[in-house]
Amino acid sequence: SIVEEPDAPEDLKPRAPIVTVMGHVDHGKTSLLDYIRKENVIAGESGGITQHIGAYGVTLENRERIAFLDTPGHEAFTAMRARGAQVTDIAIIVIAADDDIMPQTKEAISHAQAAGVPIVFAINKIDRPTANPDKIKEGLAQMNLLVEDWGGKIQSHDISAKTGLGVKELLEKVLLEAEILELKANPDKLASGTVVEAYLDKGKGYVSTVLVQAGTLKIGDYVLAGTTSGKIKAMQDERGNAVTEVGPSRPISILGLDGASQAGDKFYVLEDEREAKQIASRRSQLQREQSVRTQRH
Ligand code: GDP
Predict the structure, then answer these.
(1) How far apart are CA 271 and CA 169, in angstroms?
(2) What average pLDDT does the segment 211-223 reach?
(3) Tell me, what DSSP letter sits at residue 130?
(4) Own/partner long-range contacts of 135-141 (Cβ < 8 Å, ≥24 apart)
């Protein structure tokens, strides 16, 4: 019942890339996301990233932005994809240089490839004396994944998520990759995007973090997300600042939905509050009917 009108080319404006970090357990996904969250934010953006809202945006020195999904691992990526959500523009795949190319590394690579999402490799832990980044790149070459050092086209960078060595350069490579993709969205329409996290807060009620992918989301908007709907009462960014409106590629935490949406649900802003409510209740009725049917069988 929701039809997304195609945008006229002149209405499309450049937008920041949305990045997911994947890789084998213990290879350093969380450390990399933490390092970027803590260190890679330019001065002048009011304060550091204080809130864990499931996604965050950083601004680099050249003032370009990158949005990160702050849920490392490909479980989140595949769960969202299973729900039909396409939120990732670029995947950073972290590989520990003191280890091998492990099963989950291979899985992450095939997930990214299946989704048609370009990969940037972060060869991590190069501060360790036993690190052997060349061995990793050779292993990738054997899988037909030729990184730049090996004469190929795939971006990779040697980093230490612990000391921060190479992380800035890694992010510059992510931006290079983004440039090739020419990512664009129309900011001048009702917002739509994807839910990345949702929970019930004792004091605040239902809190959802959404990633705006098109349009501009504003306080007072009527939102439909999965089987829930509501009018946006307040919005807060990853720095804890209250915000009144947000454009494409920005993660934002919203208050006002009447239930818990789910990670991977698409959200839409509708002109009409009643329509949003009707669609949401029709969907939850369908869901109840389906679950009754599965219980019977
Ligand atoms: P994840 O499971 O992929 O999220 O991995 P973590 O970020 O939790 O890292 C696993 C372990 O490796 C932790 O003990 C980290 O402190 C350590 N670690 C991560 N990155 C580096 C690095 O660049 N250098 C070193 N020496 N240790 C690292």
Answers:
(1) 43
(2) 97
(3) T
(4) 135/97, 135/100, 136/95, 136/97, 136/100, 136/101, 139/100, 139/101, 140/101
28 alpha carbon – ligand 1 mean position (Å): 4
Residue 106: both structure tokens together: 């291979």
Between 161 and 87, name the one with better pLDDT: 161
Tell me if the pTM is above 0.90: yes
Label each residue of 76-92 as H, E or C: HHHHHHHCCCCCCCEEE
Tokens of 88: 């990732």
> What ipTM was assigned to the predicted interfaces of this complex?
0.99
Distances (CA, A) of 207 to 41, 186, 292: 25, 26, 28
Summarize the annotated binding site for GTP as residue ranges: 23-30, 70-74, 124-127
Could you tell me the sign of the dihedral formed by the alpha carbons of 187, 253, 65, 84, in that order?
A: negative
DSSP-derived 3-state class of residue 171:
helix
240 in helix, strand or coil? coil
Shortest-distance Cα residue to atom 6 of ligand 1: 28
pLDDT confidence of 239, banded at 50, 70, 90? confident
Distance 155 CA to ligand 1 centre (A): 21
Residue 263 to residue 286: CA distance in whole angstroms: 19
Distances (CA, A) of 296 to 46, 229, 290, 291, 293: 54, 29, 10, 9, 5
Angstrom distance (rounded) from CA 177 to CA 119: 9
